[in-house]
Amino acid sequence: MVDRLLEVDRLAKRYGAVAALDELSFEVGPGEIFGFVGPNGAGKTTTMRIILGVLAADSGGVRWAGEPITFADRRRIGYMPEERGLYPSMGVTEQLVFLGELHGMTRDGARAAAAAWLERLGVAGRGAEQLQRLSHGNQQRVQLVAALLHSPEALVLDEPFAGLDPVAVDAMSEVLRDRASSGMTVLFSSHQLELVEQLCDRVGIIRAGRMVACGTVDDLRHSGPERLWVDVPSAPDGWGAELPGAGLVRAEGSRRLFELSPGIDDQGLLRAALKTGPVREFRKDVPSLAELFRQAMNEEAVA
Amino acid sequence: MNREPSARGGLGSVRAVYLVARREFVTRVRGKVFVIGTALTVGLLAVYAILQITVFDKLNTTTTYHLAFTAQAERLIAPLEASGPSLGFRVQATQVSNQAAAEPEVRGGAYDALVTGDPTSPLVVVKTQIDSTLRAALDGVVRQEALDAQLRAAGLNPAAVEAQVRGASIHLDTLQPFNAKNLQQPIIGMIIAFCLYLFISLYGTIIAQGVVAEKASRVVELLLAAVRSGQLLFGKVLGIGLVGVLQLAIIGGAGLALTVPTHILSLPGAALGTVLLGLLWFALGFVLYSLMLASTASLVSRVEEVGPASLPVTMVMVLAWLLAYVVFIPDITAASGGPTPAPGIENLSTIASLIPVFSPVLMPIRLAYGDAPLWQSALAVLLTLSSIAGVTWAGARVYANSVLRFGARIKLSQALRRVA
């Protein structure tokens, strides 16, 4: 078993004066769900297009199972481009079969797989219709079928949840979890950070073409300096501003958020708090992915 | 991990092109434009053929005269029948015993005329008036009869005299001979060239629109993740080209089936070679032009912009067709007795027909005309094939560079330079 199915190695891409990708590297293992987050224009779509060979990188490379990716390897990837699109006036099953055949399936195999996936995603019975007769949500499901049809070894999905209703989001998440548990590698980008947090084994935060944070959600959440919320209702107004080893981040009413210096034990802070009177709350503050994301964006903006 | 193309991962170029071509072919042949367009054209041909048989043919059918002859006048039947075809009538002759017996039937309309009496001065009985053609024919026959009688009286053999008279003719010296073959061939060539021009305009436009439609619907990104841009481009040209060939075959086949048996059109055997060579140029010209049209179309993002973007290509095509006019119309008019063409024009036609973008239109005409030596013909094919190779390379590059860039129109130079 290879532990890195898909590797992106120091990719660089410029559009004129703008650097879309700047030495971007990360890797995704088999059966792993990797979430790719970052603001618009950070380079997520460019990265995915380069992985699929739709765009060429200026430098750097993409590796599949340890070797430079080939055209044949790319056919083992299921792709959902950011710009959705199928043939509007072609029948649903017909174009799925066509796309399946382009990925090396037989006609019958593609037909059977299309029927099975349409059924599973709740679009069964619409196969004979022209795509344009389907609702936006159903067209999205057909688009997902187009990516899944040929049983790819990896899925690369650009904003798969964009524009989906909650039911469709659940269906899509369910499919991704299920595929990953059966060994499929999934790389997807999203702005819905809660979803990324729930679904992904690992997350990469990208900004201006560079990876600013990458790891499991837990690692990322615990990677920063330790922060604690302390609720001290009897403390005087200015309390906490000059405690050794604990910096006051902000105060909200009687609650105060402290950031501990590296290597400082939280019990010292608790003792100091108890001196002011009762302590109603004393808990670790673990940032959500959304907070980490904002933090990462701000740090970059300052830097 | 298996690095070789496996049954699932590997897809040969031929299969990729075939799949793309098949999709284009199948979806378009089933499309409304094709079905209605073809049915309408065949329908119009059928209406024309039916009109030709029922109405136009009636306008110049030969009339049949029902004539009654008494025994004495019977000698006039054979010469009268002989003069019929040239004057456009046929004779239905009936022998009657005498004038009195036949007159009521003339009155009743069963006979157009009754001929009785001495063949050199017969009596012709009609109901109200005699048809002028019939009268002229009868007069001619009777005059010949009178002449023959005089000749016999003079001791001469009328048949021998007639043979002498028939044998006498002028001796003709044509300074600029009219050659029907020389006229027919270039006209067939011009028709082929014009068909090619129409075909390329029509189907080239369909290809160009197809390229932009795939770009506009964004499906192209999904396709390019599975097939190379060159395969996609070539498959498209092939598939839509075959649709065009099919439509031509249906319309042409229906046209021949309707016109040849009804003698509206006769296909000269000599033209067959011209038609076959024309088909070769059809294929070459179509591939060359549609590749150019498809790659220029990929520069734009909306179907409305296809026309302006492909204008340079269309202009070249129009220029080729205009050249055909300038170069060959003088030849054709000369063949049919018009003024001799200017001396430089032959060199112009030779040079122009060797330029790849003009060859597909000009070569079929020259071939039909019979003035293209084999080496020139072969050279033109070779040059066109190599420019197809060049256009495939450049076109695929332009296509690959442009097809994923949406929005404003992309400059051709930029699309050629940038590596995707």
Mean pLDDT of chain B: 79
**Poorly predicted regions of chain B:** 1-9
What overall form of chain A do the CA principal axes indicate? elongated
Largest interface: A-B, 37 and 32 residues
Give, in order, the helices and strands of chain B.
Answer: HHEHEHEEHHHHHHHHHHHH
Describe the protein:
The complex is a heterodimer of chains A (303) and B (420). With 303 residues, chain A is of the alpha/beta class. The mean pLDDT of chain A is 87. Chain A is elongated and about 75 Å long. In chain A, the strands form three sheets. A six-stranded mixed β-sheet of chain A has the order 6-7-8-3-9-10, with helices on both faces. In chain A, strands 2-1-4-5 form a four-stranded antiparallel β-sheet, with helices on one face. In chain A, strands 12-13-11-14 form a four-stranded antiparallel β-sheet, covered by helices on one side. With 420 residues, chain B is mainly alpha-helical. Chain B has two domains: 98 residues, D-Maltodextrin-Binding Protein, domain 2 (3-Layer(aba) Sandwich); 240 residues, no CATH class. Helix content of chain B is 68%, strand content 5%. A four-stranded mixed β-sheet of chain B has the order 2-1-3-4, with helices on both faces. In chain B, helix 7 packs across helix 9, helix 7 runs parallel beside helix 10 and helix 7 runs antiparallel to helix 14. The N terminus of chain B is likely disordered. Classes of the chains: A alpha/beta (303), B mainly alpha (420). Chains A and B meet through helix 2 and helix 3 of A and helix 1 and helix 8 of B.
